Automatic annotation (TrEMBL):
Pfam families: Ald_Xan_dh_C (PF01315), MoCoBD_1 (PF02738), MoCoBD_2 (PF20256)
InterPro entries recorded: Ald_Oxase/Xan_DH_a/b (IPR000674), Ald_Oxase/xanthine_DH-like (IPR016208), AldOxase/xan_DH_MoCoBD1 (IPR008274), AldOxase/xan_DH_MoCoBD2 (IPR046867)
Signal peptide positions (record): none
Keyword Oxidoreductase: yes
Stated name of the protein: Aerobic carbon-monoxide dehydrogenase large subunit
Domain of life, source organism: Bacteria
């Protein structure tokens, strides 16, 4: 393997197209399509008494109006509960259009189709829905104390309750270990709701030609959307194609499948025999997609004089909004990944997940981990303060050591498999991050503080992902994988992998993602899994193709396959560059059917004809067990997840008068195993840190007591600009994963995970007050000063 691009900072191949405005996003498609729009509930909780569409019927250009009653049985069923769990005793999902009751502002009630979006919106404005308002449940305290119910058949609004316990080595429960410890602390931590808010909202565009349905969706999971549409519309899978065009960010919210609109728009397209498109507007995105974070955590911890945690007990109250399409995955991730790089004596975690009349909760970049890391890292800081020790020393005292891997945390991970860390070097990471931020030489000054935060992140979850690789007679390499891209740079990294495995120039490699016509079996892009899953699947498929190419070339060159290598797309005998055959010719030789007008085929005949497909009289042109062509497919399915890790540190300054908070410096040490492209990983980390600073200082969903989201626009939902984000100093440590052939771990969510904990640590250091909630605004900090 001489064309080595794996590990190089190759420029992102998708950027020239995207940066010159040539991207094709959902709304760039279907300019002649009919438009769909939705009447959405203005109430957080209400019964629908009547829907009167009479006035809307006069709108010129109106094509159709649908309520739940108009939907056929299959389409009108509640949306699927995607990840059931035995602890989720009362899982509830929404109907595609509300049936009798609405449970949050923004829930779709009526669908309108018209010749354009303006007319569709005009018709929506004329539809009168008669609501009987019900008492809304807003906020965690309200959910457990008010006695009002979001779902009449869910007592106490409790959807799920789960306890997980890991006793100490000597058999003590967490409670016993805490009671017996020399020191104990207890405190409460609050994390508010936020959301993914990608630049491009959701959207779907469907065409029906009388036999087949083609759907474009701005999604993270095109194959699952396809399965959901086929099931809901009663179509065979082979009659449905789903294509993710360029997707302008997802950050988690586009993993929900199907969204109501993804079922309703194709259904109406089939019914009307017309193309239909729906593009979400920003307000719709805020009030009718999904949010996350939103958790209260009560911690009790017992520790010794060195700060070693002997027992920890965490009780979590999680607000999952009105519905649970993703079950309880968020609090499960919090409770299992809270442990971070540490080995605790005994651990007990308990959570209750409750319904409120607010937008549903589904994973948002980091997915429950920022909450868990906030909990664990605040705990470490509080222990250090209590003992008067350096915060990094306390962390180091609890670290899993490099010679302890694989390390079994004795819990069940989110995928139902044992929580076993595969590799890592946490002490070295701590040394690196301290050096990068200058921890030991930090110059103390009034209103300046330094903070730190560590995390471990399970990445590359299964069950599988696949890759298909084909070399054509022009020497080009065509790679496809079923998962989708939303900006992560997959066109570049997957091409790097294929170019390295096959020994071809990267310019000859093209990559297709998220198109069920090209690759039908896939899971999707979430949970920092694409690099591990599709990366390894593509490498395995390339290895199959490479082996076949060497076999055919060896025949043609009358050489031994073991003596061949591929460089710059040419197979040659090691040490004899003249004994060579280009991969383009090998691709021709791989197919016994030759076309006379094909120059490459003509050239190939100069070889002896002993290649597979050659003229040997003793065997058929395509040998048994072989296939024509130079292509291969393979799947990667891991036995369990691989665990990336990182440590971040920051310096902040607070204004003595206004309490404004500025992040002066931010440093990251990150370990995602073998790096495919360090530049892309850094970009992912920088984006994540920016999102994390948003979550720590600015972004929150503000509901009033009526369940109205009062900041549902980019005028009111505060996001950081580039001016609020410092340069992020980054260093990498590579502890290869022993679990997969490429030795990689995921990186896509890493940047965001510890940021709230790091910023809290630094503000606390600057101000000397407890920072026990996130986000924190200047006025809240001002109040804390007392
Ligand atoms: N990578 C690498 N070497 C590694 C690991 C990763 O070069 N050892 C590269 C990958 O090849 C990929 C990128 O880093 O180009 C992220 O890889 P991975 O960790 O596998 O994450 P995914 O590709 O599965 O992306 C999902 C992840 C998640 S969960 C969210 S949320 C998120 C994120 O990625 N949403 C994003 N990053 C995003 N970036 C953009 N621009 N837009 C989003 O919506």
């Amino acid at each position: 393997m001489t064309t080595r691009l794996f590990g190089e900072p190759v420029q992102r191949r998708e950027d020239p197209r995207l940066l010159t405005g040539q991207g094709r996003f959902l709304d760039d498609l279907g300019s002649g399509a009919l438009a769909a729009a939705f009447v959405r509930s203005p109430h957080a909780h209400a019964r629908i008494r009547d829907v009167d569409v009479t006035a809307a019927l006069d709108v010129d250009g109106l094509i159709a109006i649908y309520t739940w009653e108009d939907l056929p049985e299959r389409v009108g069923r509640p949306l699927p509960l995607l990840i059931p769990h035995p602890a989720l005793t009362h899982g509830r999902t929404a109907y595609p259009l509300a049936r009798e009751t609405v449970r949050h502002v923004g829930e779709p009630v009526v669908m309108v189709v018209a010749t354009d979006r303006y007319l569709a919106e005009d018709a929506c404005g004329l539809i009168e829905v008669d609501y009987e308002p019900l008492k809304p449940v807003v906020g965690l305290e309200d959910a457990v104390q008010s006695g009002h119910l979001v779902h009449e058949d869910v007592p106490g609004n409790i959807g799920a309750h789960l306890v997980q316990e890991v006793p100490s080595a000597s058999g003590l429960s967490a409670g016993e270990a805490i009671d017996a410890a020399p020191h104990t602390l207890s405190f409460r931590l609050d994390i508010e709701r936020s959301a993914s808010t990608p630049l491009e909202g959701r959207g779907v565009y469907a065409r029906w030609d009388g036999a087949d349905l083609r759907v474009y969706s701005s999604t993270q999971t095109s194959t699952s959307v396809r399965m959901a549409i086929a099931a809901a519309l009663g179509l065979p899978l082979t009659s449905v194609e789903v294509i993710a065009p360029d997707v302008g960010g997802g950050f988690g919210v586009k993993i929900v499948h199907p969204w109501p609109e993804e079922i309703l728009v194709p259904w109406a397209a089939m019914l009307l025999g017309r193309e239909i498109k729906w593009t979400e507007d920003r307000r719709e995105h805020f009030i009718s997609s999904a949010h996350e974070r939103g958790q209260v955590q009560h911690v009790r911890v017992g520790f010794d004089d060195d700060g070693r945690v002997l027992g920890m007990d965490v009780r979590i109250l999680h607000d999952h909004g009105a519905y649970t399409p993703y079950g309880i995955i968020v609090p499960i991730i919090t409770s299992t990944q809270l442990l971070g790089p540490y080995k605790l004596g005994a651990y007990r975690v308990e959570f209750s997940s409750v319904y409120t009349n607010t937008v549903q909760v589904t994973p948002y970049r980091g997915a429950g981990r920022p909450q868990g890391v906030f909990c664990m890292e605040r705990t470490m800081d509080k222990i250090a303060r209590h003992l008067g020790r350096d915060r990094t020393e306390v962390r180091a005292a609890n670290f899993i050591q490099p010679d302890e891997f694989p390390y079994d945390q004795r819990m069940t991970f989110q995928d139902g498999r044992p929580l076993i860390y595969d590799s890592g070097d946490y002490p070295e990471m701590l040394r690196l991050v301290k050096e990068l931020i200058g921890w030991d030489d930090f110059e103390r000054a009034p209103n300046r503080g330094i903070g730190i935060g560590c995390y471990v992140e399970g990445t590359g979850v299964g069950p599988y992902e696949g890759g298909h690789v084909q070399i054509t007679s022009d020497g080009r390499v065509h790679v496809s994988t079923g998962l989708t891209s939303q900006g992560q740079g997959h066109q570049t990294v997957f091409a790097q992998i294929a170019a390295t495995e096959l020994g071809v120039p990267i310019e000859r490699v093209s990559v297709v993602t998220g198109d069920t016509r090209r690759f039908g079996y896939a899971v999707g892009t979430f949970a920092s899994r694409a690099a591990v899953m599709s990366g390894n699947a593509i490498a395995l498929a390339c290895r199959k193709v490479r082996e076949k190419a060497l076999r055919i070339a060896a025949d043609a060159l009358e050489a031994n396959p073991a003596d061949l290598e591929i460089t710059e797309g040419i197979v040659h005998v090691v040490g004899d560059p003249k004994a060579a055959v280009p991969l383009s010719t090998v691709a021709v030789l791989a197919n016994p059917l030759r076309y006379a007008f094909d120059d490459e085929a003509a050239k190939a005949t100069q070889f002896s004809g002993q290649a597979s497909g050659g003229a040997s009289p003793d065997r058929p042109p395509v040998a048994e067990g072989d296939e024509p062509g130079l292509e291969g497919r393979d799947y990667y399915s891991p036995i369990r997840s691989t665990f990336a890790a990182g440590m971040h540190a920051a310096v902040v300054e607070t204004d003595p008068l206004t309490a404004e908070i500025k992040v002066l410096r931010y440093a990251v040490v990150h370990d995602c195993g073998k790096l495919i492209n360090p530049m892309i990983v850094e970009g992912q980390i920088h984006g994540g840190v920016a999102q994390g600073i948003g979550g720590a200082l600015y972004e929150r969903m503000v509901y009033d007591s009526h369940g109205q989201l009062v900041n549902a626009s980019f005028m009111d939902f505060l996001m950081p600009y580039a001016t609020e984000i410092p340069h992020v100093e980054t260093a990498h440590l590579e502890t290869p994963s022993p679990l997969n052939p490429l030795g990689i771990k995921g990186a896509g969510e890493a940047g965001v995970i510890p940021v709230s904990a790091v910023i809290a640590s630094a503000i606390e250091d600057a101000e000397g007050v407890d920072i026990d909630r996130m986000p924190i605004s200047p006025s809240e900090l001002f109040d804390l000063r007392g």
